[in-house]
Write a structure and sequence with these properties.
Two copies of one chain form a homodimer.
Chain A lengths: L1 H7 L3 H16 L2 H26 L4 H47 L1 H13 L5 H13 L1 H12 L9 H18 L3 H5 L3 H27 L3 H27 L1
Helix pairs in contact in A: 3-4, 3-8, 3-10, 3-11, 4-5, 4-7, 4-8, 5-6, 5-7, 10-11
Subcellular location (chains A, B): Vacuole membrane
InterPro entries (chains A, B): Ccc1_fam (IPR008217)
Catalytic activity (chains A, B): Fe(2+)(in) = Fe(2+)(out)
């Protein structure tokens, strides 16, 4: 890329700017996002549910049964949900592509006016963008790509993305969801198990929140705190509601 | 908009193309997306959890306690999760804006080369995009906006969005989650309540799936079928696992 070649000759701090810049594109990856979605919810909801049931003095066996049912349901709901979301995103792209194609054929002047509009928004004059509009009109495929990206802001989706996304979210949810349940497997008295579960899970949330912040380019310590806080609030609410309701 | 003015003089079918076109921008709204996220999960997970616990011959009281704990935990986790996601999206935009600003000041030639690159991808020649690049260099604010949108594909986020998103998702999750639990409130025997819950919830999933398809511009009947299938699979898995585990 011309930009990068030029950058090589820059002094360190300017080079750093550009490195950080390209780095960001890597860290904000879709797989990382899917893992985060799955683990956040997995660590939080089964944890809170287990704590809530313990508050309603259920046995560890019931807590575990409910927890496993929740993890299975949540993984399937999030996984298949993620799959269909990614798939309908791809369908949406196809439909819009077809529609833009039809418009370029049916109403080329209108589409050309839309290109002009897009560039005019940036204070570019007709005599400055004119050649660009004409160049696109001479090259329908490029014109179509331009409209998809700059008018509709749509990127061509990866066909395998839907399945990968589903599996990533589901597995991440299961991995996250099993952590708070482990203590209930070994301690039959839920009132005792919940204490260990709370300690273990809040610790896991801290570490996960830190990693989440690190990989998404947000402040890791703040992310660790926020993620843990959500888990604590959710489980406290579940605990309180279950107690109040069951009493 | 110039495009629209021109469109008025078009024959019906071409006008229709453009109407559908602008229509899509309305239907794919972020609030609709948040409602869909909340209701889909709300109708699916508490439903499957309740079915699962009934499979482990728990009483309606335990099923209801677990269901309420799950709905509270899920609403908080999704709501606060949505809030932080929207907030970090806004922070991300701010950071990128600052970074682009610094780059435009520190390495203007590199940034100008990036503009050229973006336009060159569409087969536009240097002599065609040259005037556009120069126009942007003369207008740093417009240049910055251009880079944010066309290089990074980032839209300026709405500041109130984070809170609205959180509340929309949480309320939608609660509304969806209460539906499958209602039968357990009136029928003490979970083995009987689960039957009504399954019927009521699958019916609700059909209607919701249809509406989801309608509002997101996907085939409504297919969406109704897919959405209901997810709920059925999730609850069957939860039911089976809970039974297997508890037996």
């Amino acid at each position: 890329m011309g930009g990068q070649e030029q950058a090589i000759s820059l002094e360190p701090e300017k080079q750093k700017l550009l490195n950080e810049h390209s780095e960001k594109h890597f860290t904000a990856g879709e797989i990382v996002r899917d893992i985060i979605i799955g683990v956040s919810d997995g660590l939080t909801v089964p944890f809170a549910l287990a704590a809530g049931l313990s508050g309603a003095n259920a046995t560890s066996s019931i807590v575990l049964t409910a927890g496993i049912a929740e993890v299975a349901a949540g993984a399937i709901s999030m996984g298949l949900g993620g799959y269909l979301a990614a798939k309908s995103e791809a369908d949406h792209y196809k439909r819009e592509l077809k529609r833009e194609q039809d418009e370029i054929i049916a109403v080329p002047d209108t589409e050309a006016a839309e290109v002009a509009e897009i560039l005019a928004q940036y204070g570019i004059e007709a005599h400055e963008y004119g050649p660009v509009v004409n160049a696109l009109r001479k090259n329908p495929q490029a014109w179509l790509d331009f409209m998809m990206k700059f008018e509709l802001g749509l990127e061509k989706p990866d066909p395998r993305r839907a399945l990968h996304s589903a599996m990533t979210i589901a597995i991440a949810y299961i991995l996250g969801g099993v952590v708070p349940l482990i203590p209930y497997m070994f301690i039959p008295n839920a009132a005792e198990a919940v204490v260990i579960s709370v300690v273990v899970t809040l610790f896991a949330l801290l570490i996960f929140g830190y990693a989440k912040g690190y990989f998404t380019g947000n402040r890791p310590f703040r992310s660790a705190f926020e993620t843990t806080l959500i888990g604590a609030i959710a489980s406290a609410a579940a605990f309180g509601l279950a107690k109040a309701f069951h009493a």
